[in-house]
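Subgroup meeting minutes
Present: P.N., E.W., G.H.
Scribe: E.W.

1. P.N. recapped why we're keeping a running log of single-chain structure predictions: easier to compare across weeks, and new members can see raw inputs and outputs side by side.
2. G.H. added today's entry (431 aa).
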Amino acid sequence: MKQFQSVFRFEMGGYFKSKIYLVMTALFAVVLMIVLSFPNIKTLLGSEEEAVQPTTITQVDQLMADTVSGGDVIALVNQNGALSDEALVLLANAMGTSMYLTQEDVQAVRDAVKNGTYAGAVVIEDAQTATYIAPTLTLDDETASVLYTAMTGVTRYEMLQSLGVSQAETEEILNPPVSVNVENLGVSQTDTFFYTYIMLMALYMAIMIYGQLVASSVATEKGSRTMELLITSARPNSLLFGKIIAAGLSGLIQMAVLFGSAVLFYHINASAWAGNAVIASIFNMPLPMVGYVLLFFLLGFFLYAFMFGAVGSLVSRVEDVSASIMPIMMCFVFAFIVVITAVSSGNADSTLMIVCSYIPLTSPMAMFARVAMSMPAWYEIVISVVLLLATTVGIGFLSASIYRMGVLMYGKAPKPAELVKVIRAARQNNA
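Output recorded in log:
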């Protein structure tokens, strides 16, 4: 135990004395502070433009009187009086954005949109045809679909008016007092998607960065012959476990600092983010979910870190580390792609995901995603955690055996067949 503590303290000291570790942690914390404080910073700098807020239009004169400001207004062209004044008011209200009824011709409006005078334009060609003119059709521009819905309502209004239906009856037909309630018996994936995605990315980055650091550190010590001195003063098990647990704890501390900073700056600037459902869903993670994050983060990290450490002990040069750990990396990347695809599609309980949630190499991400975005039975979670824990412990001791033999092996990185022989020899030595 004393040897383990000595190795652990030495490795932790190395991380905390590392300028890269400290600078990167501080840099990411500052970036989070700036991002989460940006609305308030923008206000303090006086650079926030006052957006034109859409208002309820009651008569067509209000459409004519709207001020065109900052390119936030959509121009409305009613060619040849295609729509009545009442229909224009209905259309403007249905669009849910500031609109300006202009008498300019279509080409002049098109030029105004191009030079930024208008944010866009809607040209009413006839009672059932409209054209949306956009300066640039961005990925999140939903104006065309909103216009389609609005024109559908306007067309129905005009048809009812032509049939002699009164305006009051028309309003009641087009806007009946419908009430829709939602009773959710499971998980709201809208609320859990964003923090699930972020936590999966955090686990992916932690294993990618710190796992490779473990392998590179072992290979560096072996290549410099430092390992030959270390194994004479400490047991290989103490060396490997001390190195990996220190890497895991330093990674966890770094993640805690970053997420803690994010939570702190979010609450400081909470009023500026009021009404932002995405940001609110990220920072409203339930406390039990935090426990699952820590559980699967630690088990998943140590599982892969032990394998990285074992493989790192089998190579003689740091240059050979990347090629040697490639099979492990491919397995991990495959698991990440499967889980991210399932999370993005909202199908966290697919057959592939259920299978992956029981396979230890994929369960840290797969089962966490299922817990966050669906409702697996309690015994499914228990089985997955027990299998993952048992595999992590088993891989840990097996990696220690490989490490004990691998640190004394020099030359080219062993091929897969040679690696199997080393594992068999390690088992025989443990038997």
